[in-house]
Amino acid sequence: MSGSKDQGALQATEAVVESSSAQKDASVAVVQSTAAEEDHDARNAADQVDEEKKGFLAFFKTKEFYIILLLGQLLAIANTATGTFTTLLGEEMWAIPTFQTLLNYAVLTIIFTPYTIYRYGIKGWFRVVYRDGWKYIILAFCDVEGNYFIVLAYQYTTMMSAQLINFWAIVVVVVISFLFLRVRYHISQIVGIIICIGGMGVLIASDHITGTNGGNVSHGNQLKGDLFALLGASFYGLTNTAEEYFVSTRPVYEVLGQMSFYAVIIDGVQSAIFERSNYVTSVWDGKVGGYLTGFTLCLTLFYCLAPLLFRLSSAAFFNVSMLTMNFWGVCIGVKVFGYKIHWMYPIAFVLIIVGQLIYYLGRKALAEARKPWLGQNQERGVTGLFTAKRRIEHTVPGASDTNEQLARSNSDRSAV
Fold it and tell me: So where does this one cross the membrane (predicted)?
């Protein structure tokens, strides 16, 4: 009898132990399952953020869309102002295009190079120069020549013609982005660009009707100026695409600091070689000094804001935004040059804005901020203001750690 009781107690104890073990196994399985789900969520963090807003107008429901539109028009106005100051300088018989942009590069260098050294340390700054200097030299060269030929174009052609030719930069950007950055354009983006260019066509038609061309230029000089504008637009397209890539992978202060640092050298040497006689023949007075100051301030503002638009959208949309320069140019020209606004101008402006809206139809929440060359989760990118990576890591728990793991994995594969 006693043996039977002991055996029963032993069986009961074993049952309790087995039950406890089963509960522990179940708990471990739940924890592992939860961890796996969290890891899966982190690895698909970009998709989660993209799905925050639903529908065909998903991107229109984000604040980033309105920031992009505002930034685009602010940049267009700033760029129009630089063209206005350049035209005014030409009227004062002042023509030193390389020196004109040299002042802007000097200001950018003074602002961003010391800050880059402060953030990286002097050794870190020299490492950037040693590792990536050649890339920034190419970027600086394209930017210097783009500015040089556009400023030079204003001396031979009208402000309106030079701005109209800038649409060629869109073609350059789209082709380069497609071939080298693996960007694939949605049908709505192509339609949007075409409508924007249609708006440009309306502007051209109104110019022919009213004769508003920004001044009297002989046909020979007009052709020369238009060719300079076309060459400048080509350099701009290359620069914009490269800068979009750089600011998506490196801090803005590094990109602007390095580019302007080398641009000062390139610009200075070019000015000393080709423009020595212009320093003597050009007029130097208070009015010229004021125009140079206005030009430099507007161009510096343009350079500081452009990288933010590159991060939020793309080099293609950046150039589409610049198409409204012609509208703002006429608005400024009414006061400065005595232009008259034709009734077709507001229609052209509305067409360009509508084209920009269509450009983002069907886009998800991250839209073009999600760069195809930065990886699924943007792990190859920099965590900076207005980057998709920053938004992803701030929205999805664990995304930051996952991005670090993916970045290390990509680095290891590259090393192999």
Answer: 65-90, 102-121, 133-154, 160-180, 187-206, 288-310, 317-337, 343-362
DSSP 210-253: HT-SSS---HHHHHHHHHHHHHHHHHHHHHHHHHHHHHHHS-HH
Q: Are 291 and 71 in contact (CB under 8 A)?
A: no
Collapse the DSSP code of 385 into the 3-class scheme (helix H, G, I; strand E, B; otherwise coil) and give the result: coil
Q: Is the pTM of this model over 0.70?
A: yes
Residue range 110-163, pLDDT digits in tens: 999 999 999 999 999 999 999 999 999 999 999 999 988 987 887 787 666 666
Long-range contacts, 150-154 (Cβ 8 Å, 24+): 150/228, 150/229, 150/232, 150/233, 150/236, 151/86, 151/97, 151/100, 151/101, 152/97, 152/225, 152/228, 152/232, 153/225, 153/226, 153/228, 153/229, 153/232, 154/83, 154/86, 154/87, 154/90, 154/225
Q: Which of 366, 320, 405 is nearest to 69 (CA)?
A: 320
User: What's the whole-number mean pLDDT along residues 100-104?
Assistant: 93
105, two tokens = 């590069």
